[in-house]
Design goal:
seven-stranded mixed sheet; 24% strand; 6 helices; Antioxidant, Horf6, Chain A, domain 2; 208 residues; alpha+beta
């Protein structure tokens, strides 16, 4: 698994769906210098755990937007699958009402570049290419700053849903550091004391 933290987020141009609209050339570069990006991957449309996450991101969308963060979902499904799922009522397993973009990574290149693609391509002794496992995305999440640098990543196995609260906490910690130059210790929450990044600051925080 690649660690992308501290590196430029892999760029891509792909089709995406936002509401009822299919976007032909969706890119991350449109947010450079303007917004943070929370890019999350999920395995499949029309499944069980995935809609709980997508609805939860929608329910907390104002919290992300108030922090200047654009939420973007991505899976290896096509734009047509995304569109159909977005038009399906929640009562029937759909995600109708989700308003943030869903990127279609049907060629698996985005998931591969972010190293969240399950399954693998294997060359046989005869030189043929076989696929082991299923080529869908793990539950990866990447926080990208305004300069396009990945500042946080977490990858869950498919049965394990993520924590929206933790995503917001990490955003708050990053923005606190950017605004105040103070580093945030374990379990830091917005409003807690932070530390100046020197020995004196650490000693003061520890009460020594």
């Amino acid at each position: 698994m690649s660690v992308l933290v501290g590196k430029k987020a892999p760029a891509f141009t792909a089709k995406a769906v936002k509401g009822e609209t299919i976007i032909e050339n969706f890119t991350l570069s449109q947010f450079l210098g303007k917004n943070y990006v929370l890019l999350f991957f999920y395995p499949k449309d029309f499944t069980f755990v995935c809609p709980t996450e997508l609805h939860r991101f929608q329910e907390e969308l104002e919290q992300f937007e108030s922090r200047g963060v654009k939420v973007i979902g991505c899976s290896t499904d096509s734009e047509f699958s995304h569109w159909a799922w977005l038009q399906t009522p929640r009562s029937k397993g759909g995600i109708q009402g989700v308003t943030y973009p869903l990127v279609a990574d049907i060629n698996k290149t985005i998931s591969s570049d972010y190293d969240v693609l399950a399954g693998d391509y294997v060359e046989t002794e005869d030189g043929d290419i076989e696929i082991t496992g299923e080529l869908v995305a793990y539950r990866g999440l990447f926080l990208i700053d305004k300069a396009g640098i990945v500042r946080h990543q977490v990858v869950n196995d498919m049965p394990l849903g993520r924590s929206i609260r933790e995503a917001l906490r990490v955003i708050d910690a990053l923005q606190h550091f950017e605004q105040h130059g103070e580093v945030c210790p374990m379990d830091w929450e917005k409003g807690d004391d932070a530390m100046t990044p020197d020995h004196e600051g650490v000693s003061n925080y520890l009460g020594k």
